[in-house]
Write a structure and sequence with these properties.
alpha/beta; five-stranded parallel β-sheet
Amino acid sequence: MRKRVRFLLLASLVLSVFAGAMFRIALDKFLFCCCERNLLLGRCSHRRVPRDERHPRVTVLFVGDSIIEGYPFAALFPARFRTVNRGLGSDDVRNIGERCIEEFNECSSDAVVFEGGINDILGYAAHDQDKERTLAMITGAVEKVLREAQRRNVPMLVASILPVTRRFLLPYARAVPLPSHFDVAKANGLVREANARLHDLCQQYGATYVDLHGRVVADTGEFDRAFAAADGYHVNVFGYSRLTPVLVRHIESVLEARQADSRAPRE
């Protein structure tokens, strides 16, 4: 009798965990659909908002990995922004940098936002790759982009690399889950070091560093699960909603500074 009761309790627990996981995954996907259809947070797509001539539309190019690729810009960004999404899932920082430089020639934009590096750090933590080599790869790729942007006088913003956390639900349909031997603390340590170097590079080349990491990191130093997708390293819709005001504020600041420079009298 006791064995049967234990079995039923265990089965109930397993079913509860499974049901909770399925509900979270379904909720995540539903919220993304709502966000894309402008039903979330009362936001509207720029296609449905009258243009305000006092604030002309500006074009912002976003280049990055899957975090940019999955960003619901139309639903979350203000009406006056025309966003160009050049995110590519699973891309490493070197390829992102090369694509960004190519976009300088192909896309006429008022500002460029660069995001990348997390896939390189995931490889470092999962496969025990060399730490300094990984850091050098990230900083080298970003510095190459910043140097070219400076030469072309392109307003450049560099987004910080986001933290990661352990996968907290069943394997997620959107992405490959982190392996069981993955060292989350090791990855987040390198994220912090890489962000510090990105900050210094931005100061060196006159670019703008955008601290997104600080908006979604928990007290533990990991990705806050309120803002992380179930795989532990992508962003859910609440996370994107939290990141958007930070991006918008920095982009507007860059554009205002550029506009002020253009109006300043030349000697």
